[in-house]
Amino acid sequence: MKKLYKLVFPLLLISLILPNLAFASWWNPFSWNIFSWFHKPAKTEVLQVATSTAITTATSSADIIKAEVDAQVKAALKAKADADALAAQQKADEQAKIGAATKAQQDAANLAAQNAANLAAQQVAQQQAAQNAANLAAQQAAQSTTSPITISCFSSQASTTIGSSVTWTAQPSDLNDNNANFYSWSGDGGLTGTGKSISWTYFATGTKSAEVMYTNSNGQTIIGSCDGSVNVLLPLKSYSHYCGSVCSE
Q1: Which contiguous run of DSSP H or E holds residue 159?
Q2: How many CA atoms within 13 Å lie on the side-chain side of 40?
Q3: What are 102-143's pLDDT values in tens digits?
């Protein structure tokens, strides 16, 4: 029994100490330089993995930087476009204001010109009205200082026969015989005519009278009835036919 104990105890001690010695770096034979050629593939693989990881990391960083640069470029372009649009809008607003101001000035100038033309026309009308009033006043003054006129008329004979002509003559008081004077005749038997003297033929028996309207160069007008009348008779032959022997006596 004592021998068995002496055998077990060392074995147990060795089983506890030997693994620690095997995994210790100073005791690990694989960590020695003499055995480094056994681990070259592992180092190459780790280096390749590290290089690949570094390349992947660098690529990812470059993509991130490129994306950031692209975003900044886009933002700068958008800012420039917004600034250009704002400048264009401001320029359009300024041009619109200038156009509105120019139109307002043109409208004001047109209105002023129209008002000036209306004022000039009104002044001309006032001057014309004043001139007309002055002319009327002068005419009225001339008429008020002109002596009143009279008109008389008479026939060339007191009697006549049917088919024979009679001359009627007018005689105004002013004796102003010129082309500005105007005579208008009317009377029995359809008498009508113009002129200072007229000849008229009657075709019916009876007493015939006449009158004349006279207007002189001053615009004075008067109507006068002629002195006397004309007795229109049948011709002598016709009269003898009707009265027979009584007429011969």
Answers
A1: strand 159-161
A2: 5
A3: 999 999 999 999 999 999 999 999 999 999 999 888 876 665
The closest of 167, 160, 166, 165 to 235, measured between CA atoms, is: 160
Polymer length in residues for the chain: 249
CA dist list (Å): 219 to 31, 181, 182? 156, 9, 10
Residue that terminates a domain, selected from 59, 85, 100: 59
0.90 exceeded by pTM:
no
Q: For residue 225, what are the domain limits?
A: 151-248
Q: Any idea what the Cα angle at residue 188 is, between residues 187 and 189, rounded to 5°?
A: 120
CATH of the domain at 198: 2.60.40.10
When pLDDT is cut at 50, 70 and 90, the band that residue 165 belongs to is very high
Give the residue from 11, 42, 59 where a domain finishes: 59
102 found inside a domain: no
Q: What's the CA gap between 226 and 157, in Å, rounded?
A: 13
- Whether 223 maps to a domain, the answer reads yes
Exposure of 170 in the CB half-sphere (CA atoms within 13 A)? 31
Q: Is residue 130 part of a domain?
A: no
Cβ neighbours, 10 Å, residue 160? 19
Amino acid identity of residue 27, one-letter, is W
Q: How far apart are CA 205 and CA 182, in angstroms?
A: 30
Number of domains forming the structure of the chain: 2
Q: What order of strands is seen across the sheet that includes strand 191-194?
A: 191-194, 182-187, 210-215, 221-225
In a domain, 82, yes or no: no
Query: How many beta carbons lie within 10 A of that of residue 20, not counting itself?
Result: 9
